[in-house]
Amino acid sequence: MLGTHDPWLFAASLLIFNLTPGPDLLFTLTRTLQHGVRAGVAAAFGIGAGCLVHTTAAAFGLAALLAASAEAFTLLRWVGAAYLLWLAIGLFRAPPALQPTVAQRAGAVAAVDPWRVFRQGFLTNALNPKVAIFFLAFLPQFIDADAAHKTVAFLFLGGWFTLQGIVVLTVFVVAVAPLRRWQPSNVWRRSLQASGALLFAGLAARLAFAGKN
């Protein structure tokens, strides 16, 4: 599919990534609790717009090099495996994600400009260097080494990443909005972090040992 493979694994990996507590999820949660559904959806779309920045940078910054050099593609896979393993270790060791404040959980809805929330979401994602590194580590393992057009493959996977992220965050917003006093437990957050860590460790191993058979 446009020089990519394992679409179901890609989708499942993204779902865990989207639901693992982090800056994007926390930003969307707090804006929803503070200002309601419109603000939460604006945050989701802003974060999606930030992902498009990372998609474009990854596609046009690396695709030409990877298309011309099999060694460069292999090196990137090894670097990606190391980063994903580091990310897995970080998730295992990290404390639970920060919780919303009492005032945020109280659920008072204040008027807010959705475009302002959109811009905040965009900057939260676009200026996060960890997201850029994640794109460079994660997307190449789902691109065929002999793909004719790696730029197209990067853009396709990046677009999928962005669209699925917006959909997941929007569903999350709709689910959370009526529960303004809801507070996720430490067990829930720890379970998601552990699931993400195991997934990233498995992906790191898959990257490192690809082509060994």
How are the secondary structure elements laid out?
Layout: H1 7-19, H2 23-35, H3 37-68, H4 70-93, H5 102-106, H6 114-126, H7 129-138, H8 150-176, H9 186-208
Helix pairs in contact: 1-8, 1-9, 2-3, 2-6, 2-8, 3-4, 3-6, 3-7, 3-8, 4-7, 4-9
Can you tell me about this structure?
This protein is mostly helical and 213 residues long. The chain has one domain. The protein has helices spanning 7-19, 23-35, 37-68, 70-93, 102-106, 114-126, 129-138, 150-176, 186-208.
The assigned structural class equals mainly alpha
Gross morphology: globular
| Number of DSSP E strands | 0
Strand share of the residues? under 5%
- Helices and strands, in order, run as HHHHHHHHH
Features:
213 residues, 9 helices, 0% strand
What does this entry show, briefly?
By secondary structure, the chain is mostly helical.
